[in-house]
Amino acid sequence: MNLFEALRIAGNGLLANRLRSALTTLGILIGVTAVILLVAVGNGASVQINNQVQSLGANVIYVYPSNARGTGGVSQGFGSGQTLTQADVDAINNRQQAPDVVAAIPIAQSGGQITYGNQNYFAPTTGTTPAFPTVRNYQLAEGSFFTDDDVNARHRVVVLGQTVVDNLFGSTDPIGQTIKISKQSFRVVGVFASKGGSGLGSQDNVVVAPITTVWAYLTGGRGKIISQIVASASSPSVVTQAETEITTILLQRHQIADPTQADFQLQSQQDILTQANSIATALTLVLGAIAGISLVVGGIGIMNIMLVTVTERTREIGIRKAIGARRRDILIQFLIEAMVLSGLGGALGIAVGALLANQAPNIPAIASSNFPTPVVSAPSVVLAFCVSVAIGLFFGIYPANRAARLHPIEALRYE
Amino acid sequence: MITLEGVTKTYRMGKLEVAALQGVDLHVGRGEFVAIMGASGSGKSTLMNIVGCLDVPTGGRYLLDGTDVAKFDDDQLAVIRNRKIGFVFQSFNLIPRTSALHNVEMPLVYAGERGRTERAREALGSVGLADRVHHQPTELSGGQQQRAAIARALVTNPAILLADEPTGNLDSVSSVEIMRLLANLNAEQGRTVVLITHEQDIARFAKRVVELRDGRIVRDERSAA
Ligand SMILES: Nc1ncnc2c1ncn2[C@@H]1O[C@H](COP(=O)(O)OP(=O)(O)OP(=O)(O)O)[C@@H](O)[C@H]1O
Ligand SMILES: [Mg+2]
Asked: What is the arithmetic mean of pLDDT over B58-73?
């Protein structure tokens, strides 16, 4: 029996009970729609995270202080210790010792209320050096970044991210204006171009000042704390070499022989990307699995209907056997019926799911929120279709096998 | 071509055993036209089902073309039914919601043969249903349905035609038509026909009459034709 015949016979069987077939298909349709939609949301979140991490600057390597478990018995640091110094930064910036590093900058973080006139805003203030835009991949939209002179003289100047400008200034030109951070006055010298991206950890929600100024006026005399060093490798392919160079320099400078005892930690942008991706993948899988449950429910619906169909058509099965249908002919006929039901549900479910995913950004509530734009990927579509057909196969096997095993005489006698 | 040697068939219903056939010896040669008669419950249909390879005997041997069917499995029996045997039932047994043409094509579908549509049309034409090929069973009269069923039985060109009370649901005019058709198939095409009937009038078309009583053959007569 060829496939065309099998499909025609299966189609006849399904058309004989249109409403029933449609309702059974609906079960799978809803399941597949849910899978497509939720996986699309997961993918969207993944894209969003990737974009955000990517916008932090390519080729970036972070150096954090860590608990030093000094072998000499003297504990050198505690908590987020103060093991990193400006001298470390200078050493990494030495091209002879670290040829694959373009630039390294120290970072000192400080929180604080920011005010301009009667406007209030909260954003973290970052103390750093003039290589900041290069390393962190920022463009200036207006004004200019601060200079080495500003750092040396602890000038109270700041460069603002777009979000901060929007919140404080409205339509006023911020350049040359004076804002207050923790009640200290700062002059705005530059504004970063927006990096896009939104929500948590937005790259536009920044206030950057010379590190010396931050130490002097904002970190409250807690000393010259460097919370991290950010270095940028000359290309993505040399990130690993650059990491090795930085590790060697710092181990040597901190006089640590055993790398496992290091009082600092390195993390590259790629590490973060990998981590973020694995989180996003896990999210997608969890969402998909939840939706998958409804597919199983749909599959049980198919099994149920196929059992009813086989019983109703017992006599027909007997006739087919009498005129020469073998077990596998009957088996295939009912399996194909089940797979047509589920495959049709799958195809329609994909269409509905993709449509909803496409229309999601047009829904005002979603557009205005930070909800990720759903991304329907080709593999998820192919997978969803295959899975739905496979569900028909899986849940169709038992009823089809029942049909195939019927005894011809008993089947012919069935009323 | 059909040889039964001491064939018995016992149905088991829980603790109760029903001996439907109690030792049947029968030989039907090529080109014979046999009518099987007997009271209700005498085992006619049981015998027919065994001859048609729809069921297997409990005891004894059934040789079809010299081969003991006991050694065939379900699928091999299906192939034999498909190639060698054509069935005609009392209740027509056409597949519902399926046109006469597709019904007649069905055995060829299972045989995996080519040129199905033409052969099915031809078979329908030979039973006088050329103008009814696209009708569904519900759109045909009883006599027409039975003729479609005969076309389906013939389409694989089987050597044996088995008919279990083919006229049982038909009026006398249609009955005679169907019997003429079967008699012609026997006389002109040399097909072996085994027919079950209650009625003497119908049995008269056959060249040989076998009578069953309580699962045994009690009469086996050839009419001088
Ligand atoms: N599947 C079955 N299970 C149990 N007993 C059965 C079964 N099929 C037939 N019998 C019994 O076997 C005996 C013969 O039945 P069969 O159908 O062969 O009779 P028949 O001669 O064809 O009768 P009729 O003229 O009414 O069709 C009957 O007593 C019947 O009750
Ligand atoms: Mg009977």
From this structure: 94
Look-up: residue for tokens 């003039």? A130
N- to C-terminal Cα separation, chain A: 28
For ligand 1, atom 3, the nearest C-alpha belongs to: B11
Q: Residues of A numbered 350-409 whose beta carbons fall under 8 angstroms of chain B's beta carbons: which are they? A: 408-409
Instruction: For residues A11 and B184, give the distance between their C-alpha atoms in angstroms, rounded to a whole number.
Output: 38
Which band of pLDDT confidence, cut at 50, 70 and 90, is reported for residue B65? Answer: very high
* Encoded amino acid at A291, one letter: A
> E strands along A251-335, which residues?
264-268
The reported pTM is 0.76
**Do A316 and B81 lie within an 8 Å CB cutoff?**
no
Sorting pLDDT into bands at 50, 70 and 90, what band is A225?
confident
- Which chain A residues have a beta carbon less than 8 Å from that of B112? 1-2
Nearest CA to ligand 1 atom 14: B43
Nearest ligand 1 atom to the CA of B47 is 18
> Chain B closest CA to A321's CA: distance in Å?
7
pLDDT in tens, A285-296: 898 888 889 889
Classify residue B142 by burial, with Cβ atoms within 10 Å: 0-12, 13-18, 19+: middle
Give the tens place of pLDDT for each residue, A384-395. 999 999 999 999
Q: CA distances (Å), A107 to each of A209, A210, B193, in order?
A: 10, 10, 101
Is the predicted pLDDT of residue A398 greater than 50, yes or no?
yes
Give the pLDDT band (50/70/90) at residue A198.
Answer: low
Total tally of structural domains belonging to chain B: 1
Q: Which of B7, B11, B196 to mutate to test the pocket of ligand 1 (most atoms within 8 A of CB)?
A: B11
Closest CA to A293 of A17, A15, A32: A32
B9 in contact with ligand 1, CB cutoff 6 A: no
Q: Whose CA is nearest to atom 6 of ligand 1?
A: B11
Q: Are strands A60-65 and A228-233 parallel, antiparallel or unpaired?
A: antiparallel
Q: List b or e across A299-316, with b for residues whose CB sees 16 or more CB atoms inside 10 angstroms.
A: bebbbebbeebbeebbbb
The confidence band for A1, taking pLDDT boundaries of 50, 70 and 90, is low
Domain that holds residue B61: 2-222
Predicted local distance difference test score (pLDDT) of residue A4: 85
The model's pLDDT over B116-168, given as tens digits with 9 standing for 90+, comes to: 999 999 999 999 999 999 999 999 999 999 999 999 999 999 999 999 999 99
Q: Return the number of CB contacts < 8 Å for A and B.
A: 63
Cα distance between residue B74 and residue B62, in whole Å: 15
pLDDT digits (tens, 9 = 90+) for A66-109: 865 444 444 444 444 678 999 999 999 999 999 999 999 999 98
Closest CB to A409 among B49, B78, B94 = B49
On whether any CB of chain B is under 8 Å from the CB of A328, the answer is yes
DSSP output for A43-80: HHHHHHHHHHHHHT-TTEEEEEE-----TTS-----SS
**For the domain that residue B215 is a member of, what is the CATH number?**
3.40.50.300
Do A119 and A174 meet the contact criterion of CB atoms below 8 Å apart? no
Q: Does A410 touch chain B (CB under 8 A)?
A: no
- Between CA B147 and CA B175 the distance in angstroms is 11
Q: Mean pLDDT lowest for which of A219-223, B51-55, B119-123, B177-181? A: A219-223
Pick from B55, B82, B89: which is nearest to A324 by CB?
A: B82
